[in-house]
Amino acid sequence: MYNSYWSQRESQSHTPGVIKVNAEHTLYVEPNRAIVSIGIVTKDKELAIAQRQNQLISSKLLLSLEQNGIPKNHIQTSTYHIYPQYNFEDGVQTFAGYEVRQIFSVTIDTIDKIGKIIDDAVKAGANTVESIQFINSDTSNVYQKALAIAYKKAFQKAVTLANASGQKLVTQPKIISEKTSGKEIPYASNQFVKAASTEGTTVQTGQIAVTAELIVEYSAY
């Protein structure tokens, strides 16, 4: 009975513990592509007129993009909306006409020319820029580097926690869970559209943040 009791206590004292840590690392890369949402908003009391005006200006916009070297397969209609317009006066609603909004999603590979492309588009009749999204078309290698550094951080955390808690760490992890990578994407606002019609547009591309995040679980005893 004595031997059985202490054998049980000894087994319990060596039951492996678990150390679970979270770690992430971010690397920065230069963008090599921009996706611009740009378009035309027209208004008129007659829907047919508003649509016709929008179509005419859209044709000029598309020609401007083509002249700036944007391939047709890099231009896509992302939004086409028709909105009834109303005026409110003294609590009375009166019909004012229609708004036609057509937005194109334009992929630009020559981001050093993005200011000129926007300027020319505005001159051609574009009157709204909803967003500019800067991306890097291939972040796979950078992400792998960030992933490796994130794992080193996780391991160091686990070593620190094991030492602090008086345990010995099993260096081979039990579980490695990779979280979805995140990217910080800078946007240019619609506020520069008016300036673009009178002076050259300067767009700051910033950098793309590529983040790798892991949850790693180790055994300890």
TrEMBL record:
Q: Which Pfam families match?
A: SIMPL (PF04402)
- Which PANTHER family would you find in this protein's record? SLR1258 PROTEIN
Q: What is this protein called?
A: SIMPL domain-containing protein
- Record the organism: Bacillus seohaeanensis
